[in-house]
From TrEMBL:
One of its GO terms (cellular component) is outer membrane-bounded periplasmic space. GO terms for biological process: peptidoglycan catabolic process. Coiled coil: none annotated. Residues 1-24 form the signal peptide. Keywords: Hydrolase, Signal. This is N-acetylmuramoyl-L-alanine amidase. Gene3D superfamilies: 2.60.40.3500, Tetratricopeptide repeat domain, Zn-dependent exopeptidases. It is an enzyme of class 3 (hydrolase).
Amino acid sequence: MLRLNRIFLILLFVFFAVSSVSQASVLQDYRDARYAYQQLLRAPQKQQYRHHWDKVFTQLQHFVDQHPDHEKAPGAYYLLGQSHEKLYEISRVKKDARAAVDYYQSLARRYPSSSLADDALLFSARLQCEVLGAEQAARNDCQVILQRYPSGDMHKRARELLATLPPSTTPVPVKVTTSQPVVSPGPHVVSAIRHWQDADHTRLVLDLDGIPVYRVNTLPPSQKDNTSARLYIDLFKTNRVPTLSSNQKIGGTLVKSIRVGETEERTRIVFDLAQLTRYKVITLAGPPRIVIDLANHVGATLKEDVPQLETSTDAVKGDSGSDQISQVLQRVPADETPQIHLPDVAAKTHGKLRIVVDAGHGGKDPGAIGPGKLYEKDVVLKLAKTLAQRLESSFHCEVLLTRDRDIYIPLLERTAYANEVDADLFISIHANASVNKKAYGIETFYLNFSKTDKAMAVAARENGMSLQEVGDLELILFDMMANSKINESSRLAAEIQSSLVGQLSRKYSNVKDLGVRQGPFHVLLGATMPSVLVEVAFISHSREAKRLNSRTYRERSAEAIVHGVRQYLQSQNLLAKRASDS
């Protein structure tokens, strides 16, 4: 009997092990297919040839055929629709548009509770209306969105599209089902509203204890009394902490004030604006927060994401006039003299190089912990200070540190600071770590889609996220990287990596070159200048931990990074240009 139990346990273990490996393999199949699609979008010349698209179609089709019940199947159908639609934009062959519609319809029909279902229906409606001349079918899709997904982010667009279509001569039956699953039912708490700006953009960050159901709307300036424009967000089943002010005077270029009102059902946050501009909304986890980026002026480059939207007019009609929520929206503060809040940094001298050095982690975030309770946050701060001194003396440039002491700074604020001070380069210093205590070496990252599981793992650790959340972040990057300096960052990373490995190998044995890698790192997200993340050694490896704790090793590492920066600047002819401008 005991022997049978052992055999049973062994078989059970084998079953779960095989199942786990199988699931990982299926997920990798999806990632490979998605990556092939993303790579094609970055290759305009390849897009002109149908066989390149066919390869992408084959991979995605294989995934949905083999794994129709997998959680990524809706995403694969969505990408099939997107890829056929993009092919139509090039080919102008209607069969490509019809194929896109078929895949969008399949997604909505097979996975009605997917967050992509209403997006697919809207894209289907647009193609049928604008390309295929099927107005009745387009009307049907819009009606389904309005009835089935009343709180979805395509509701406003469906209503706008429906308004452009001629009225139907026959009634359209619409099956009403429950709305799609929400992010989190709550209750939640908003603890802080942070803000900062550079010349072109304003960033607003709502700190939360979880992501609630929310809705973002705008109101144009009143033509009656010319009051200011407003952007506001309703956070359902969310309250504010008592210390959060109900009225903050900002006086910035775009955002003049922030006002907060709440009821038992929701909290409304109103941003009084100088004018309505383009904006994008991003939800991020670890810690939970909602980020709103606004363009300060019409010419500012800001790629629009698809935020959670509802029409502003309907939102106002739905509010009671005596409701505090309605009142906080309708009240408009009197104009005041703008008081622009910028970092306490002297104006940048024309032609002078400015570099921001970021010491990873800090404060409540210790980073990785090595032997003898050696904290990553401590050793990288020492290295960052040394690097700043070496950069200043080598290039006679201005070097700014994101932190010069043991304090906590949220990841997204680090590149935002670099943007605000108009930095030319951003260098983030870190120490690597692994559960494998034998792992060692040097590697340098720049912002891009990750190509390896190891890069994903490093990004997860540095971001304080799970691997699944990093995968979600890649989708955000997919929409945001058009304005990132990817090529320049990759060259800077290559020069720093080569210099670190080359120079340290002359002084130390067993210096392993782990190469230049790509990864979705929060600390690099949003940078408008070439930016890299340098993992100078493994703090989890006993030999490399001793080196990190050595002042000599840190100084040599700093000198090597400076040499890499010099090689990059010379390759871009920036040193000569700076000298001529001075």
